[in-house]
Amino acid sequence: MSADLATYNFAYLDEQTKRMIRRAILKAIAIPGYQVPFASREMPMPYGWGTGGVQVTAAIIGPDDVLKVIDQGADDTTNAVSIRAFFQKVANVAVTTHTKDATIIQTRHRIPEQKLTEGQVLVYQVPIPEPLRFLEPRETETRKMHALEEYGLMHVKLYEDIAHNGRISKTYAYPVKVDGRYVMDPSPTPKFDNPKMHMSDALQLFGAGREKRIYAVPPHTEVVSLDFEDHPFEIQTFEQDCALCGAHGVYLDEVVLDDQGGRMFVCSDTDHCEDRREHGHVGEMLAPNQEAAE
Amino acid sequence: MSDNPLLKVSGVSKFYGSRIGCQDVSFDLWPGEVLAIVGESGSGKTTLLNCLSTRLMPSAGSVEYRMRDGNFRDLYHMSEAERRFLMRTDWGFVHQNPADGLRMTVSAGANVGERLMAVGDRHYGKIRETATDWLGRVEISADRIDDQPRAFSGGMRQRLQIARNLVTGPRLVFMDEPTGGLDVSVQARLLDLVRGLVNDLGLSAIVVTHDLAVARLLSHRMMVMKDGHVIEQGLTDRVLDDPREPYTQLLVSSILQV
Amino acid sequence: MYVAVKGGEAAITNAHALLADRRRGDRALPALTIEQIAEQLGLAVDRVMAEASLYDRSLAALAVRQSRGDLIEAIFLLRAYRTTLPRFGSSVPVDTAAMKVERRVSATYKDLPGGQLLGPTFDYTHRLLDPSLLTDEVIADPARKEASGEEMMRVSDILAHEGLIEPDGDLPDDHAAGDLTREPLEFPMGRDLRLQALARGDEGFLLALGYSTQRGYGRNHPFVGEIRIGEVEVEVDMPELGFPVSLGRIQLTECQMINQFKGSSIAPPQFTRGYGLVFGQSERKAMSMSLVDRALRAEELGEDITAPAQDEEFVISHSDNVQATGFVEHLKLPHYVDFQAELAMVRKMRADIEATRHGDTEMKDAAE
Predict the structure, then answer these.
(1) Rounded CA separation A265/A246 (Å)
(2) For chain B, how far is it from start to end, CA to CA, in angstroms?
(3) How far apart are CA A269 and CA A255, in angstroms?
């Protein structure tokens, strides 16, 4: 057995596989929000850990691309590190932590705070692509519901929420209607991020490896969160600002400081936070130190 | 009211290999008319109901329905999308076991409101109001609106199923033994309710039953089935008071006199 | 002062180094060789090949070593490797009737042409831990016999001769077998794709489902018509040559299950079938597979679907252990962003309830 067990193509996947995935992507772009089945390959990382996103990225990445990978909004979480290292190894492509410098951003569970521009592609990692899955476990039935635009059941769920909780209680993976036709699961991003998908200048691609589905939202497409007229969709708000950079109106992570309930809130989007601090913004955690230094 | 029937059934047959489910059934159903299909088990009445309501594909014959625009459409030359839409708006289907016609893990209000939401209603308050109104009409207390049918008695579940079916103002309702499995006193109350609603709303209905009393109370016309064939039909009162076929006479005379 | 956590990269590198250290273990002990694993832990290697859908004993043994004996991890490794291999064609269907048989048993006949051959089975061992295996005892040569040349006809063919068993599948002759690893999964499935899914399905899962059918969850009255284990030729068609060429031999386990007979208004009763085929010596898997195959044919055979083993979507969606472990274990990944959203919602709802209660108390006080 040779030391070189296998030779890998650029970005790991062979050209036929890339072609198959690209065809699925094109179909997905042509029918915004529709889940296109694809023959997901076994990848060197486990199903559920981003194989769908990785396959989409591998199919579209080229030698001149600049890749950013984030998980929970951060570049340095272990899985983001692992995926970024994978592409550096199999594609030898330039990588960055700066949103504005990236051409492809692969993400798990967050959309960057920085507005995306034309020419950028956001690749989402999706665990369960079917927004109706937990209401109707059968794939044969949900396929029909999408084909016939039978989304009554989705609204039944929202109705139930209001009846029992006084409000719609879905806080992430909040279902949206795309281009006025298909109901789509935006992946487990917090509903806070839903408005960012609407009329974006960037191309948004969604890959579910284990469930073998790809879907897409082309640039400048309507993405509307489901709601009732008298219970309109609302994003989360934070009372606090980021303790490090003072950012307001961004998604914050809660950090536990001690065992007496001490906590602080910091930007979930680490690049956004660093960028702000580089430009002189400070939050209350850093401000006293600055004063002390002066 | 139109001069045309609502439903035209022509030569409907269903075979299972060499076994006859039903054979050569033809009739017209008029707006506001209730037709009872009566027979014992194995008579083919449920098979026929399923063929008429597109739940089962007939082996022969045609079923034509007059759409709201006045045109007749052959139900089996429609796309599945159109059939399913019809099922949700213009038609109702009341199952013998209410659990088959309800979402048991979803509240009563959501059960009634689902069809409204399916056709695009998006105002929570109004949906809830309509649901409350319908619960009232089927004599379910308004404070049960957020309870699940799992917590309801058999009679209540059946009334909820009726509300769920009628909320979109259907023109034709199919009923499969609507009082089967209910206590006798509950049956009477339910039949009264159904008769009242059918009258008020001008519904057409096709009711399958083995119980002649149900036929008497609900229907204008009835068909008697035996071994897959319609052996007698006519105005309900006439058939029950003056049965012509020996089998019909047997059925009628078998009703226990208490 | 709080410093944003960094160092994920370093942590991963260190974790990998620790893993390699633990895998090797006590340096004073000799390292396992791939050959030892392939030879002496053959059934583990067989399972890895079967569920990875890749027949290569050395690679499977390497995977077993690399995974420290975690067979699902090994299966994952081998599957990932399989993805990188070019596909240059399909073989001719293997002919198990021409198998060089090492083991062949039938529960439906006491004796039959070719005989009952026990082979290297655990079946009649007494399950007592054997201290002689603590050291390297000399093992005597087993008894050998010349092949009798008698044909080992299939039990199913014996029954088919009298028309007693349903024909072997009814796909049209020009049907091209689907490929589960090259096509997206869609329901309902054809039997060919279903059998592929079962062949690479998790042994434990299929065992449990097969067991459930025997206990009444979709019972189909199974009898083992035949189990045979041995080597078959793998051949490919060579259009340029006009005849098939052998690529070599692989070991297979085949199970023909004979199930509940069934007739219809037009056909007299016949026994029905369940089928299992697995790489290597994997009897438990082949038998479980055949029980589940038969259960999943319920709809085709006009039977009521009442049990989990008969539910195609349920069985096939959850039979792949690499997918299953990926998704179960992904729960370890950070989910704190979504958890933050849930925290906020719960806090808000609790605050609302508190406010209402407070409001009620105030009103009550005001009223009094």
Answers:
(1) 10
(2) 41
(3) 14
- pLDDT tens for B160-169 read 999 999 999 9
By the 8 A CB rule, do C220 and C294 touch?
yes
Q: Is A52 a catalytic residue?
A: no
Task: For residue A283, indicate whether it is catalytic.
Answer: no
Q: Is A53 a catalytic residue?
A: no
Q: How many angstroms separate the CA atoms of C290 and C296, rounded?
A: 10
Residue C278, H or E segment = strand C270-279
Contact yes or no for C296/C308 (Cβ under 8 A): no
Note the pLDDT of residue A291.
Answer: 46
Looking at beta carbons, which pairs linking C42-48 to residues 24 or more positions away fall under 8 Å?
C42/C280, C42/C281, C43/C280, C43/C281, C43/C282, C44/C69, C44/C71, C44/C74, C45/C280, C46/C251, C46/C278, C46/C279, C46/C280, C46/C281, C46/C282, C47/C71, C47/C75, C47/C203, C47/C280, C47/C282, C47/C285, C48/C74, C48/C75, C48/C78
Query: Does the pLDDT of residue C289 top 60, yes or no?
Result: yes
Q: Please tell me which residue, C67 or C90, carries the higher pLDDT value.
A: C67
* Distance of alpha carbon B43 from alpha carbon B227, whole angstroms: 5
d(CA A38, CA A134): 22
**Average pLDDT, whole number, for chain B?**
91
Residue with tokens 């008029």: B30
User: In 3-state terms, what secondary structure has residue B104?
Assistant: coil
Q: Is the pLDDT of residue A171 over 70?
A: yes
The average pLDDT across C265-290 equals 91
For residue B10, the surrounding DSSP H or E stretch is strand B7-16
Q: Distance, in angstroms, between C281 CA and closest chain A CA?
A: 24
A194-236: pLDDT as tens digits: 999 999 999 999 999 999 999 999 999 999 999 999 999 999 8
Identify all chain B residues contacting A228, using CB atoms and an 8 Å cutoff: 122-124
The minimal CB distance from A229 to the residues B81, B118, B123 is found for: B123
CA-angle at A110, arms to A109 and A115, nearest 5°: 155
**pLDDT tens track for C41-78:** 999 999 999 999 999 999 999 999 999 999 999 999 99
C166, two tokens: 């349903």
Does C265 lie at the interface with B, CB-CB under 8 angstroms?
yes
What does chain B come to in residues? 258
How many angstroms separate the CA atoms of A39 and A53, rounded?
14
Counting Cβ atoms within 10 Å, is residue C215 exposed (0-12), middle (13-18) or buried (19+)? exposed
ipTM: 0.85
Residue B81 token pair? 């999308």
CA–CA–CA angle B215, B220, B221 (5° rounding)? 80
User: Which chain B residue has its CA at the smallest distance from C266's CA?
Assistant: B17
pLDDT at A100 over 90: yes
Distance from CA of B163 to the nearest CA of A (A): 16
Distance CA B103, CA B112 (A): 10
